[in-house]
Design brief:
The protein has 393 residues and is α+β, with helices and mostly antiparallel strands. Helix content is 33%, strand content 25%. A hairpin with a 2-residue loop joins strand 4 and strand 5. Helix 1 packs across helix 3 (74-85), helix 8 (278-295) crosses helix 10 (345-352) and helix 9 crosses helix 11. The two termini are 26 Å apart.
Length: 393
């Protein structure tokens, strides 16, 4: 039986966290290639440390001459990301850090299993399992702890970049613990925030005085109580941050990127991967399906699992779990999902319109629980399958 009374915690990290700097650069490179060619192939990894960024992986365009040209743009793309995030530290500065580009053309052995032909459907870009999740806990149908942890850092980034809070710096982490009663979030038991700041003279109390009004602003009224514990910069000074304080790497924040630990994760990271890689596109599809199941009133919570084999077009399995909250038999939900959406790699990309430069914006503050954009960004957050699902069950 699912527990109804408990405390659950999730964390988020800011766009200036070293791993998120790397995710941002990898996804910005992906967007650049997709702008040139919607079917571009990209598997880009970034590593960052003191005054250095190293970029590697595989890329592919049908025009080899343009491929060489785009390889030459990588340095500028990386510097633009670092500048927008806000890094102008002595030991990590967008203008002076050393950038090493080790990208190379995609392996022909990988391409042969993935590329479609006249008599063969496009195969999945890798084997693996992907999960999607949705819950009625928030309006975005996301688990509340991760949604609120993201909201805190997004708001602090806004006031930092606007100049409203000039002593805040890019690197930050948040953590929200929520007490649940009868399965619903009722109280924030603790808030943890560590944020980089400008001056060593600033104390933890000084930083709390800066950030607390914004945290109270973004959390729903009544969740913060007199008993809520606050841990703001609990170790004290946090001036040295970002890749100068700790190394960063693409793909290390997969729980931050998804559901904050409230749902299973298949293990594959998203950033830097074009949408032929089912690690990314099928995880988006699974979230889309789970969200539509919940939005259709078929369950209060829903987990969807998909599985694939490299070079094979159709999913090997689809599993639905409504965690005892379902109004519809999960087997009927599974049948309906297969009717309303083509879950081959190409079918997912076409349905969700994923062959667009829409990925840099996903690199921080979560890939899920965001409002769909007019240009197709976060298309997997739409609930446009509700009517079709109701007809199919």
């Amino acid at each position: 039986m699912t527990r109804k009374d408990y405390i659950f915690t999730s964390e988020s990290v800011s766009e200036g966290h070293p791993d998120k700097v790397c995710d941002r650069i990898s996804d910005a490179i992906l967007d650049a290639f997709l702008t040139e060619e919607p079917e571009a192939r990209v598997a880009c990894e970034t590593f960052a440390t003191t005054n250095r960024v190293v970029i590697g992986g595989e890329v592919g365009l049908s025009d080899k001459a343009k491929l060489k040209d785009y390889m030459g743009r990588v340095d500028g793309i990386a510097r633009a990301c670092i500048k927008d995030i806000g890094y102008e530290q002595d030991k990590f500065h967008h203008a002076t850090c050393e950038i090493t580009n080790l990208l190379h053309e995609q392996s022909a052995h990988i391409a042969q299993g993935v590329n479609g032909t006249a008599d063969k459907d496009e195969g999945a870009g890798d084997q693996g399992i992907m999960f999607g999740f949705a819950t009625t806990e928030t309006d975005a149908l996301m688990p509340a702890p991760i949604q609120y942890a993201h909201a805190i850092l997004r708001r602090l980034a806004e006031v930092r970049k606007s100049g409203e809070e000039p002593t805040l710096r890019p690197d930050a982490k948040s953590q929200v613990s929520l007490r649940y009663a009868y399965g619903k979030p009722v109280e924030v038991t603790s808030i943890v925030l560590s944020t980089q700041h400008r001056d060593e003279s600033q104390t933890s109390a000084d930083i709390r005085a800066i950030v607390e009004p914004y945290i109270r602003e973004v959390l729903p009224e009544g969740l913060i109580t007199a008993q809520t514990e606050w841990w703001v910069n609990p170790t004290g000074t946090f001036v040295i941050g970002g890749p100068d304080g700790d190394a960063g790497l693409t793909g290390r924040k997969i729980i931050v990127d998804t559901y904050g630990g409230a749902a299973p994760h298949g293990g594959g990271a998203f950033s830097g991967k074009d949408p032929t890689k089912v690690d990314r596109s099928a995880a988006y599809a699974a979230r889309y399906l789970a969200k539509n199941v919940v939005a259709a009133g078929m369950a209060e919570r829903c987990t969807i699992q998909l599985s694939y084999a490299i070079g094979v077009a159709r999913p090997l399995s689809l599993y639905a779990d409504t965690h005892g909250t379902g109004e519809v038999d999960p087997v009927a939900i599974e049948r309906a999902l297969l009717q309303v959406m083509d879950l081959t790699p190409r079918g997912i990309r076409q349905h969700l319109q994923l062959n667009k430069p829409i990925y840099e914006r996903t690199a921080a503050y979560g890939h899920f629980g965001r409002a769909p954009d007019a240009d197709g960004g976060f298309s997997w957050e739409k609930t446009d399958l509700v009517d079709a699902l109701k007809r199919a069950v």
